[in-house]
Design brief:
420 residues, alpha/beta, TIM Barrel, 10-stranded mixed sheet, two-stranded parallel ribbon, 14 helices, 16 strands, globular
Amino acid sequence: MKIISDLHIHSKYAQACSKNTDIDKLEKYAKIKGITLLGTGDFAHPKWNEELKRDLIEDGTGILKTKSGFPFLLQMEISNIYSQGGRGRRVHNVLFARSFEVVDQIIEELLKRGRLDYDGRPIFGFSCIELVEMMKGIDKDIEIIPAHAWTPWFSIFGSKSGFDSIEECFEEKSKHIHAIETGLSSDPPMNWRLSKLDDVNLVSFSDSHSFWPWRIGREATVFDLKELTYDNLIKAIKTGDGLTETIEVDPSYGKYHIDGHRNCNVSLHPSESSKINNICPVCKGKLTVGVLSRVEELADRPEGYDPKNRKGFKSLLPLTEIISSVYGINQLASKKIWERYNRLVDTFGSELEVLISAEKSKINDIDKKLADAIIGLRNGNVEIQPGYDGVYGKAIFDEKDKVHPQVKITKRQKSLTDFS
C-alpha cells in the first residue's frame, strides 16, 4: 500500500498561518496535490483540538479519518527554548500520537508547564531531553522528530542555536530519536555527508502554513505498508522498513540555503562568506549562516558521497512555482496560474502525478513550455537562485536569465566583487 504523506503542517491557530484552514480544505487540497495521508497539525491547541474531535473519527488503527474516509495522523510541533551547555538553544520538534486519549494526556502535562491557547506551535522552556522523557512517560509510542533539522534559527543543527549532534542535544534520550526532518533547505545528499546520521532515517514534510497546493505537500515522505495503521507507520519511521523515499524541493529553493542578510539584499555562497568571516559587507553585522555552510561545518564526508542501501528521493518544485517562473506571473493565486494548473491536474489526476509521472508528450499536448520545464526539473537541469535569510529561492527556466554556473547568484544576490 503506497502512502504519500505530509505529516508536519499547521492549523489556523498557529502564528503566520492561513486563518481559513479547516479539515475540509486540508482534505480537498491534499487530494489535489496527491497526498494520501496528512498530519493534523497543532493537536494541543484547545480550539483546533475541538475541531479535530468534531471532524475526525477514530477507528482503533491510530489513523483518524474524515467522514469521507480521508486519513489524518495526530501531529503537532513544539518549540523548545532553553539553555544547555552554557548556550541558549531553540529547537523545534514534531510529535505524533495514536489517539485523542494520548493527546489529552499530552495536553494535561504541557499545561503544567505553560499555556497552549496562544499559538498552535507553543513555546516551552524545558529541554529536548525533558520533552522526550515527558512524552515517553505518557505513551512509549509517541514519536519525536527534530523538525527542519538544519534551519538556522529553530532546529537541532541550526547555526544560531542548535547542537552539533543528536547525542549532544538529547543525551541519554538519543535512543528515542529515529528520524530527522530534512527541511526545505537541505536534501538527503547533504545529510549523507554526516556519518553520525547513518543510523537516522530521513523524512521530509512541508511544515505548511496554509492549505494551498504551493505549500501543502511540497515535501513529503512515501511509505509502502501492508496496512495503514499508526503502529505500522511508526515502525517504518523507526526502522526504515517500509519507508521508501522522500519528495524534496531542491534545497536551493529553501529560505535558508546559503548565507546572507535579507535587510541588505546580500547573499553569498559559503566559499565567499567564509572569506569575510560571515560579516555582512554592507552593514558589518553578522550574516545568517545558511544550511549549506552548516552542513559543510559538520560533515565528515566529501560532497557527492553516496551511501549503499540508501533511500531514494525526488527533487521537485511546486507546480504553481513552475508556472509562475515560466510565464512570469508573480501572484501564485492568480487566475492565469489556476487555469494552467487545473488543466494539468484535471488531466493527470493530481499535481504530484504531473510532476513525477506524466509523459512529456501528453503534457506537451496541453502546454509545451510547461512540459519542457517539468521534464527539465525531473532531469535536474533547472537552475535555482539560492534562498537565503528567509528569502525563498527561485527557479530559472529561461536560458537568458541564468547566471554563471560557478557563481550562481541573482541580481539581488551579490558576490564580494560587488562590494570591492
